[in-house]
Amino acid sequence: MRAVVMGSGSWGTAVAKVLADAGNDVVMWARRPELAEQITTGHENGDYLPGVTLPANLTAVSDPAAALADRELVVCAVPSQSLRDNLAQWLEHLSPDAILLSLAKGVEVSTGKRMSEVIAEVSGFPARQIAVLSGPNLAKEVAQEQPAATVIACVDEDQAKRVQEAFATGYFRPYTNTDVVGTEIGGAAKNVIALACGIAAGMGYGQNTIATIITRGLAETIRLGAALGADITTLAGLAGIGDLVATCSSPLSRNRTFGARLGEGATLDEAQAATNGQVAEGVKSCRSVRALGQQHGVEMPLTEAVYQVCNEGMTVQEMAVALLGRSPKPEVYEGRG
Ligand SMILES: NC(=O)c1ccc[n+]([C@@H]2O[C@H](COP(=O)([O-])OP(=O)(O)OC[C@H]3O[C@@H](n4cnc5c(N)ncnc54)[C@H](O)[C@@H]3O)[C@@H](O)[C@H]2O)c1
Ligand SMILES: O=P(O)(O)OC[C@H](O)CO
């Protein structure tokens, strides 16, 4: 396919490499001309993926019109809270038949909308031209060609298959799914749970605690997904438990790392300053994921606790006390209403 990756952060760059390795004609868009130049001539993105040699035929430009001209697959690789504004600027340059593929794992704070909903609203494109990619995909590991799988979700299965084919390489295995809601909720919610895991690890707690948070995090993600109309089997797959385990367990995760700094005693500002400009989506999305839960009467205690720490001044010690002090529950309950 003729593809463009709009955004040259760590995941956008790794995804562009996968697409190029899979034989597609790929261009990247970078906001900064000097980064576009470094990718095109130096075959590296030193700010985000240092040490990774990019394919020689992968080029980048800083002019969105040039990047988008005549592209069949438009990969949206900017952070979730900036997607609306960016897409509005790209709109006039989009090919009318293009597939818009979202990589972002977040829920818009100002509207509570998932990324595919934002894309539909801004672009006016039909659902069959909007897809999402989500799974256990730490950018650095994918860029190093370590084996991994992902999910391409689109309501139109044939379109999902087209995108699947474009992404298939010897080291990256895409699966398809028509459950866009479940795929997106899995990706957004796991970032919030990874913050909680990081906090626990930073406080010195071990694997029993981490496993408990992952498992109970999955439980509240499933409750939210069910309330929003997701197929809960999606959350038992790569975009659910798969991504949750990868993100909550890996020191490469920005969300887990951000949480670990909080658990070690850093302030929010100190943790933010240490991100090197990279996005930890859960810090903002804890607000919108919590709001979705509240709107739908879904109990989400871990999300609530992370929200309180990130927005209301709760300390990590108070968070632990609040979570452990909750009333006794059966393990399986609906948790709504
Ligand atoms: N990094 C990963 O391992 C990974 C894996 C899967 C999914 N994701 C998701 O992909 C999305 C993008 O993440 P990333 O890892 O590439 O982020 P990043 O922080 O590495 O890079 C973000 C990119 O977007 C640009 N950007 C930031 N704010 C912008 C704005 N307001 N307007 C335009 N561009 C802006 C930055 O310059 C940078 O090029 C996120 O939603 C993330 O959750 C990341
Ligand atoms: O680094 P994070 O925390 O944004 O997580 C990266 C990916 O989403 C893992 O699948």
Automatic annotation (TrEMBL):
<keyword id="KW-0594">Phospholipid biosynthesis</keyword>
<feature type="binding site">
    <location>
        <position position="279"/>
    </location>
    <ligand>
        <name>NADPH</name>
    </ligand>
</feature>
<feature type="domain" description="Glycerol-3-phosphate dehydrogenase NAD-dependent C-terminal">
    <location>
        <begin position="179"/>
        <end position="319"/>
    </location>
</feature>
<feature type="binding site">
    <location>
        <position position="254"/>
    </location>
    <ligand>
        <name>sn-glycerol 3-phosphate</name>
    </ligand>
</feature>
<feature type="binding site">
    <location>
        <begin position="254"/>
        <end position="255"/>
    </location>
    <ligand>
        <name>substrate</name>
    </ligand>
</feature>
<dbReference type="GO" id="GO:0046167">
    <property type="term" value="P:glycerol-3-phosphate biosynthetic process"/>
</dbReference>
<dbReference type="GO" id="GO:0005829">
    <property type="term" value="C:cytosol"/>
</dbReference>
<keyword id="KW-0520">NAD</keyword>
<feature type="binding site">
    <location>
        <position position="31"/>
    </location>
    <ligand>
        <name>NADPH</name>
    </ligand>
</feature>
<feature type="binding site">
    <location>
        <position position="139"/>
    </location>
    <ligand>
        <name>NAD(+)</name>
    </ligand>
</feature>
<comment type="function">
    <text>Catalyzes the reduction of the glycolytic intermediate dihydroxyacetone phosphate (DHAP) to sn-glycerol 3-phosphate (G3P), the key precursor for phospholipid synthesis.</text>
</comment>
<keyword id="KW-1208">Phospholipid metabolism</keyword>
<dbReference type="InterPro" id="IPR011128">
    <property type="entry name" value="G3P_DH_NAD-dep_N"/>
</dbReference>
<dbReference type="InterPro" id="IPR008927">
    <property type="entry name" value="6-PGluconate_DH-like_C_sf"/>
</dbReference>
<dbReference type="Pfam" id="PF07479">
    <property type="entry name" value="NAD_Gly3P_dh_C"/>
</dbReference>
<dbReference type="GO" id="GO:0047952">
    <property type="term" value="F:glycerol-3-phosphate dehydrogenase [NAD(P)+] activity"/>
</dbReference>
<feature type="binding site">
    <location>
        <position position="139"/>
    </location>
    <ligand>
        <name>NADPH</name>
    </ligand>
</feature>
<feature type="binding site">
    <location>
        <position position="32"/>
    </location>
    <ligand>
        <name>NADPH</name>
    </ligand>
</feature>
<keyword id="KW-0547">Nucleotide-binding</keyword>
<feature type="binding site">
    <location>
        <position position="281"/>
    </location>
    <ligand>
        <name>NADPH</name>
    </ligand>
</feature>
<dbReference type="GO" id="GO:0008654">
    <property type="term" value="P:phospholipid biosynthetic process"/>
</dbReference>
<feature type="binding site">
    <location>
        <position position="243"/>
    </location>
    <ligand>
        <name>sn-glycerol 3-phosphate</name>
    </ligand>
</feature>
<dbReference type="InterPro" id="IPR006109">
    <property type="entry name" value="G3P_DH_NAD-dep_C"/>
</dbReference>
<feature type="domain" description="Glycerol-3-phosphate dehydrogenase NAD-dependent N-terminal">
    <location>
        <begin position="4"/>
        <end position="159"/>
    </location>
</feature>
<comment type="pathway">
    <text>Membrane lipid metabolism; glycerophospholipid metabolism.</text>
</comment>
<keyword id="KW-0963">Cytoplasm</keyword>
<protein>
    <recommendedName>
        <fullName>Glycerol-3-phosphate dehydrogenase [NAD(P)+]</fullName>
        <ecNumber>1.1.1.94</ecNumber>
    </recommendedName>
</protein>
<dbReference type="InterPro" id="IPR013328">
    <property type="entry name" value="6PGD_dom2"/>
</dbReference>
<keyword id="KW-0444">Lipid biosynthesis</keyword>
<dbReference type="InterPro" id="IPR006168">
    <property type="entry name" value="G3P_DH_NAD-dep"/>
</dbReference>
<feature type="binding site">
    <location>
        <position position="254"/>
    </location>
    <ligand>
        <name>NAD(+)</name>
    </ligand>
</feature>
<feature type="active site" description="Proton acceptor">
    <location>
        <position position="190"/>
    </location>
</feature>
<keyword id="KW-0521">NADP</keyword>
<feature type="binding site">
    <location>
        <position position="48"/>
    </location>
    <ligand>
        <name>NADPH</name>
    </ligand>
</feature>
<feature type="binding site">
    <location>
        <position position="105"/>
    </location>
    <ligand>
        <name>substrate</name>
    </ligand>
</feature>
<dbReference type="GO" id="GO:0006650">
    <property type="term" value="P:glycerophospholipid metabolic process"/>
</dbReference>
<feature type="binding site">
    <location>
        <position position="105"/>
    </location>
    <ligand>
        <name>sn-glycerol 3-phosphate</name>
    </ligand>
</feature>
<feature type="binding site">
    <location>
        <position position="253"/>
    </location>
    <ligand>
        <name>sn-glycerol 3-phosphate</name>
    </ligand>
</feature>
<feature type="binding site">
    <location>
        <position position="11"/>
    </location>
    <ligand>
        <name>NADPH</name>
    </ligand>
</feature>
<keyword id="KW-0560">Oxidoreductase</keyword>
<feature type="binding site">
    <location>
        <position position="10"/>
    </location>
    <ligand>
        <name>NADPH</name>
    </ligand>
</feature>
<dbReference type="GO" id="GO:0005975">
    <property type="term" value="P:carbohydrate metabolic process"/>
</dbReference>
